[in-house]
Structures are given as structure tokens and as C-alpha cells.
Amino acid sequence: MAEQGQAVASGDPIAGSAVFPRGSRVNEEGHLEVAGCDVVELAEKHGTPAYVYAEDDIRARAREYRQAFEDRRADYEVLFASKSLPCTAAYRLFVEEGLSVDVASGGELHMALKAGFDPERIHMHGNNKSDEEILFAARAGIRHLILDSFDEIERCERLLDEPQPVLIRVTPGIKPSTHDYITTGQLDSKFGFGLEDGLAARAVERVLASEKLELVGLHAHIGSQIF
Ligand SMILES: Cc1ncc(COP(=O)(O)O)c(C=O)c1O
User: Closest ligand 1 atom to the C-alpha of 219?
Assistant: First the structure.
């Protein structure tokens, strides 16, 4: 890689870096090219900051995730955490690639449905779901509602007309190697029920005693961009 400010030679091995979408290169002008587009031209045309997505690369990565499981077992599901790119075109792309999806708001759920996701492939997260969002998700027939707090458990029981399969989000007390701002699995996380402080066990008891909520399993997320 060239030093900052230094001209980049055509053919610089950007293509070998996992940071850039596959097929990225430095073109004859010395400009970065992503998915066949010169990013300097894109910046001139669209202004900056601009987000540029390489569809081929996204599809290839989705297939790799599926293949990795397919090679090992028949019973698996790969989910796109759609908060990372909530737009209908992206949802549609993952429908086509056979992924499932995790949504964390009514807006994301709306787009996932519009893009053609089978509700059976939609899982609803979020630590601040409104009554309307809970009802929207349940009535759309999503697969799992992921419960995040005792308040939410109580509201689900009050609001739901039909039994709803649920997961309970637990914070397992694991601190991964990543930036503090994007860790989610530690005990004082804003998400879920702690394993270590006994809240998760109480949540499980509470849901098992419910007539409306069907406990299917636990969910845990420990953070993003883990090394
Ligand atoms: C339930 C859930 N899924 C996915 C994500 C995004 O995670 P990642 O960056 O690992 O895709 C988060 C981030 O907080 C999350 O809470």
C-alpha cells in the first residue's frame, strides 16, 4: 500500500485486501476502482460522503456464509443484520441469495416484507420496541420476536392475540476484542438479560409461565467487528 499523499501505482494489490470489495483495483488513472466504477468519478457525480456498494461482492459473501454451513449441516439459517444497510434493494438482494433477516424496527420490518422476505425468515430484535411494532411483527407472522426486557414481556402478553414464538436475548458476560462502543455482550449492556446476575433465568421462568409466549431458545450477540 502507498503512503498517504503518495501516488498509487496502477495494479497496486488492493485486490488482495479484505478491506475492499473483491475486484477492487487501482486503475490506469491511479484512482481506486470498486465494482468497475472509478470512485473519483463517483464522487464528482454524487458528491461526498458517498456510500458505494459492490453488489457482486455482497452476493459472493452471502453465498460463502451459506456454503460454510451447507458443507456441515442441513439445518441452518444465515441472517442479514439489516441495520447495516436498510434499503429495499439490499433486502431484495438477500432474499435472492436465500438468507434470512434480522430487523430491529418497524421500518426495517416494513422494508423486509416489501422486498419479498417470507415472514418465516424474519426475526425481530430491538431493545425499544413500541406497542405498534410488537403488534406489526406478530400480525405479519414473523418467525421470532427476540425479547429484551421484562417490560417488553409484559407488553407482549397484554397486546398479542395469538401465541408468538420468542427468543430471550441474554448478555453472556463476554467482552470481545473490539471497540468498547460496539460491544453488546457484557453484563451492563443496554441489551437483554444478564446471565451472571440471574436476570436471564428469571426471564426464562417468566416466559415459560406465559400462555402467549412460546420459548424457542436464547439469543446472544457479543459485539461488532470482532478481531
Ligand atoms: C441483534 C444484533 N444483531 C446484529 C448486530 C450487528 O452486528 P454485526 O456488526 O455483528 O453484524 C447487532 C448490533 O448491536 C445486534 O444487536
Answer: 1
